[in-house]
Design a protein that fits this description.
The protein is α+β, with helices and mostly antiparallel strands and about 500 residues long. The protein is about 40% helix and about 20% strand. Strands 1, 2, 3, 6, 7, 10, 11, 12, 13 and 14 form a ten-stranded mixed sheet that branches. Bound molecules: adenosine-5'-diphosphate, zinc ion and magnesium ion. Adenosine-5'-diphosphate (ADP) binds next to strand 3, strand 10 and strand 11.
Length: about 500
């Protein structure tokens, strides 16, 4: 049972072991490393399907978004979806790919109950985009994975198996799908998960796909092999299917890598195969020995013209390629001096990032704005069940609010209240401060009077402080804030109390 007990070295990338008793006794123990490449499928965010006018819509009743084209009836002809082509090229450019001047569609032939045509239209040897890369962060370090290609294909229907029969829903059949293939550059489970997060974050922020895993909008096949550390040749590629989450991908690799290493150590020769991740059992199981490309009898689809994107068109798409989330994060740290943790939150949520930037650009205290954008704003949005589009005040109003705090006009407690009111009404912060009488009392005379009253009313704590119990000051300060209805300048109140008590 305890057969595989993997040991990972500190870099987290090399797998040593397992076999206790051989492993640490032998001075010449062989170390192994994992090699991982991912094939990620994402549904493109188009209004209609890839070859017909049916809606590309999640959650409709089975077989309501179908027509003769996406049902593969005889005699119909596919018409490519322009927006899907644009999103494909946009993705390629986002990932630094080249966009070949010639691309085409091919048929990948196989029998499958949820693909009525018995072939899938895909791009085989001439994809629309190729040779790019994606940088991503893992454990505070930047890694780069090369992207082999991102090509356009179509989704198939979805089978559901009931007690005594099965059903096929063709709503998903013919939905545009982008397959993003990575080079085998990933070295461990965590890295694979981080890559997937970075990739989908980039695609969501570029509006290419919603990448909602629960809705099956992202699916990922994992290819993994092991080899002696430092070897140049790749080991036998094993493909794992059926992970429903990115953490499932990580867990599958955490199981599969030691399994392969142990097999190799036992002297077994691993062979190329496809395995299935059994999430309940936490293991991978044999599924089939992997087909080769020639088994699919790929050939150019005779119903579809090759693609010859003009340079002008490619450039017009390039003009709209957004900044990658990681680059945006790095810029927030560099330009606005934000702590990495804050920048990370704003990276993951492009909408909040834009809101922050608009408010903070050219402003002296970006961190003050980030605090509201990261904490208060999402909390209110969640509370009210709305999103950023429903926010009633403009980003610049937030800057005004922070400026009021920084100028000592209101204290930070009042600022919380003002923010809540801004969110509820959309009113300007200065107007709210005025209306609610929240202006901070920084007037020395007024604060002196409040503090004197507090000391007189609390002789016990006052005596404690004088006797050296420093903590008693906090209590008195709290009383002063209370007496001022939260409006006293807290720092000034603290100083004043101390001065009066020491007098
Ligand atoms: P296939 O033709 O079987 O689909 P490819 O060579 O196109 O195989 O590669 C598919 C994926 O598998 C790519 O992401 C690639 O990086 C990865 N890959 C290829 N060979 C290996 C290997 N030996 N170990 C791990 N990953 C691999
Ligand atoms: Zn259709
Ligand atoms: Mg391939």
């Amino acid at each position: 049972m305890a057969a595989f007990r993997p040991v990972r070295d500190v870099s987290g990338t090399n797998w040593i072991g397992p076999v206790p008793g051989i492993c640490h006794k032998s001075p010449t123990v062989m170390e192994y490393e994992a090699v991982i490449g991912l094939e990620t499928h994402v549904q493109l965010k188009t209004k209609s399907k890839m070859w017909c006018g049916c809606a590309n819509e999640y959650g409709a009743s089975p077989n309501t978004n179908v027509c003769p084209v996406c049902l593969g009836m005889p005699g119909v002809l596919p018409v490519p979806n322009d927006e899907a082509l644009r999103l494909t090229v946009l993705t390629g450019l986002l990932l630094g790919c080249e966009i070949p001047a010639f691309a085409k569609f091919d048929r990948k032939n196989y029998f499958y109950p949820d693909s009525a045509k018995n072939y899938q239209i895909t791009q085989y040897d001439r994809p629309s985009t190729q040779t790019g890369h994606l940088d991503f962060e893992v454990g505070g370090e930047i890694r780069r994975v090369r992207i082999t290609r991102a090509h356009l294909e179509e989704d198939v229907g979805k089978s559901t198996h009931f007690d005594r029969h099965s059903g096929v829903d063709f709503n998903r059949g013919g939905v545009p799908l982008l397959e993003i293939v990575s080079e085998p550059d990933l070295t461990g489970p965590e890295e694979a998960q981080a890559y997937l997060n970075a990739l989908t974050e980039a695609l969501v922020s570029a509006g290419v796909s919603d990448c909602d895993m629960e809705k099956g909008m992202v699916r990922c096949d994992v290819n993994v092999s092991v080899r002696p550390k430092g070897a140049r040749e790749l080991g036998a590629k094993i493909e794992i299917k059926n992970m429903n989450t990115f953490s499932g991908v990580r867990r599958a690799l955490e199981h599969e890598i030691p399994r392969q290493i142990e097999a190799v150590r036992r002297g077994e020769k691993l062979r190329q195969e496809t395995r299935r991740w059994n999430d309940d059992a936490g293991i991978t199981e044999p599924m089939r020995s992997k087909e080769d490309a020639h088994d699919y009898r790929y050939f150019p689809d005779p119903d579809l013209l090759p693609l010859a994107p003009s340079r002008e068109w490619v450039e017009s798409v390039r003009a709209l390629v957004p900044e990658l989330p990681l680059a945006r994060k790095q810029r927030y740290v560099r330009e606005f001096g934000l702590p990495a943790g804050d920048a990370e939150v704003l990276k993951s949520n492009a909408g909040l990032g834009r809101f922050f930037e608009e408010a903070a650009r050219g402003f002296a205290n970006p961190k003050g704005i980030a605090n509201f954008v990261i904490n208060n704003l999402p909390a209110r949005l969640a509370e009210s069940g709305t999103d950023l589009s429903a926010v009633r005040f403009p980003p610049l109003a937030l800057r005004d609010l922070v400026a009021l705090v920084d100028a000592g006009r209101i204290n930070s407690k009042a600022a919380q209240e003002v923010f809540g009111e801004m969110f509820a009404t959309g009113d300007a912060p200065a107007a709210i401060v005025e209306r609610k009488g929240l202006a901070q009392v920084s007037d020395a005379g007024a604060i002196d009077a409040i503090c004197a009253e507090v000391i007189a009313a609390n002789p016990g704590p006052a005596a404690d402080f004088r006797a050296g119990k420093v903590a008693a000051l906090n209590f008195l300060k709290g009383q002063a804030m209370k007496l001022s209805k939260g409006k006293a300048n807290p720092a000034l109140a603290g100083e004043t109390l101390e001065r009066l008590l020491r007098a």
